[in-house]
Fold this protein.
Amino acid sequence: MAKVVLVDDDVELMELLRDYLVGEGFEVELRHDGDAGVRAALSGSFDVVVLDVMMPGIDGIQALRLIRSASAVPVLMLTARGDDDDRIAGLELGADDYVPKPCTPRELTARLRAILKRVVAGARGAPMAQSPLTIGTLTLWPRERRAVRAGTALALTSTEFSLVEILARNAGQVVSKAMLSESALGRPLSRFDRSIDVHMSSIRQKLGALPDGRSCIQTVIRKGYQLIG
């Protein structure tokens, strides 16, 4: 049973979402301010954190920054519908995904299951993921969801690792944003969704440049992304 903490000061909404998630087989706890949310996220007691952006005291963006300074626990952000700035800020700070508010319990459940499916699949280690995957100086251990570049461990979020793994398994080939969204985020790519682009920007910074100065993740305009050695 996956354990989820919902962090939002909208008590009525959170109780509604909790009741729905419990009915879907989740174990759920609630926190109603950013400070309590950070403590819960860093306690090691939860499999995934749902974090609202707008809260009194420490807001969701500040809370996410504190969480990411010490933990790679999956975080799903709740953002105001149409607020691209908060959405992008959350992704840049390491949020795994976001859901615009108001959201339906069904949509939130689907997003949570997509995140948890990635984490569980990595922990169990599918047959194809038993041995390390090496592309140039980049080595991935899919079973442990661990990555090293030129001997340095990479602090990748769950979503970032999934994206890198997909690119690594297709090294030298262009992978479409639609495929990346379906495989790594667990949802179809919508027309104006910039999530993949923001995640890729973060990944590029963490991987660093090749000896010739190029990024190891190349953008192929109107087609997708490609990992090179």
